Amino acid sequence: MAFFIAWVGCWLPIALILLRLLHWQPIKPLQPEQKIPLIVSLYLLAPLIVWGVIWLTNSSFSDYGFTANFPMLVSLVLGFGLGILSIGISYSCQVALGWCNFKEINIKQIASILPSILLIALLVGGIEELVFRGFLLTELERDYPVWVAAVTSSLIFALLHLVWEQQETLPQLPGLWLLGMMLVLARICDRGHNLGIAWGLHSALVWAIATIDTAQLVTYTGKVSEWWTGKNNKPLAGVAGIACVLATSLILWLFSVLRV
Fold first, then answer.
1. At what angle do helices 110-128 and 32-57 cross, to 10 degrees?
2. Where does residue 16 rank: exposed (0-12), middle (13-18), buried (19+ CB within 10 A)?
3. Residue 112, Cα to own-chain centre: how many angstroms?
4. Residue 247: what pLDDT?
5. Are 239 and 250 in contact (CB under 8 A)?
6. All residues at 6 or more sequence positions from 165 whose CB lies less than 8 Å from its CB, including other chains
7. For the chain, which ranges sit under pLDDT 50?
8. Contact yes or no for 242/174 (Cβ under 8 A)
9. pLDDT tens-digit profile of 183-210?
10. pLDDT per residue over 75-110, tens digit each?
11. What span, in angstroms and rounded, lies between the C-alpha atoms of 119 and 116?
């Protein structure tokens, strides 16, 4: 609680300044172009707050799964590849079933949006993994069994997504919780509980879904209910997205078994 209070407390003055610069009016909802600076500023503060905890407790970033070395980079690449593979198979199956169509004509848009979306995806994935599967999971494990820590950290991870968008996030809550559990498994099966695979996997999912949405690469046919493909076009709010998370979790579990 102290961590999240400190994080939000340090961010609020920055948020108020940004809202003023963005000419936000309280009677109007935040627009996407207004949300991005707020989210980026919030996320950039997180490592500083974690560093403050490390300084106060005489610990290190490696205690929370973050190590700046070559094995971490390898794990990051492996996780990113697994994420892209999972999303690719999920949408390929939906296209084969006639649930959606792939608009090849829009592929040319990817080159122009790739660098910015990839950078944001790596930032979002890295910060969220440091906070939820790094700091929060590790601290909960000090007092509770790993499964309790995993369930609790994943629940907090899912619920905090309601801060930015309630209507579209509510149907995604079960999927977000499962995603959190999958990312806990990704950390457990990595070398010494590192965050590399979880970071890469999380970033790949953010990058792939954001690219598909921005470039409008997929259109849904309406052949089946949106609860199958994802309510409000959000994959985690549908059976297909949840099946993708479960299948990826199975791959991670098999990977951990083979490593043992």
1. 30
2. exposed
3. 23
4. 95
5. no
6. none
7. none
8. yes
9. 999 999 987 689 999 999 999 999 999 9
10. 999 999 999 999 999 999 999 999 999 887 777 778
11. 5
What the block records as the tokens of 129 is 């993994």
User: What's at 246, amino acid-wise?
Assistant: L
**pLDDT value at position 192?**
65
Asked if 243 and 90 count as a contact pair (C-beta separation under 8 A), the reply is: yes
Token look-up 């090849």 returns: 104
Q: Tokens for 221? A: 């046919």
Check if the beta carbon of residue 203 is closer than 8 Å to that of residue 84: no
Q: Residues for the chain: how many in total?
A: 260
Cα(226)–Cα(99) distance, integer angstroms: 9
pTM: 0.92
The three-state DSSP-derived secondary structure of the chain is CHHHHHHHHHHHHHHHHHHHHCCCCCCCCCCHHHHHHHHHHHHHHHHHHHHHHHHHHCCCHHHHCCCCCHHHHHHHHHHHHHHHHHHHHHHHHHHHCCCEEECHHHHHHHHHHHHHHHHHHHHHHHHHHHHHHHHHHHHHHCCCCHHHHHHHHHHHHHHHHHHCCCCCCHHHHHHHHHHHHHHHHHHHCCHHHCCHHHHHHHHHHHHHHHHHHHCCCEEECCCCCHHHHCHHHCHHHCHHHHHHHHHHHHHHHHHHHHHC
Distance, CA of 217 to CA of 195 (rounded, Å): 30
Alpha-carbon Rg for the chain in angstroms: 19
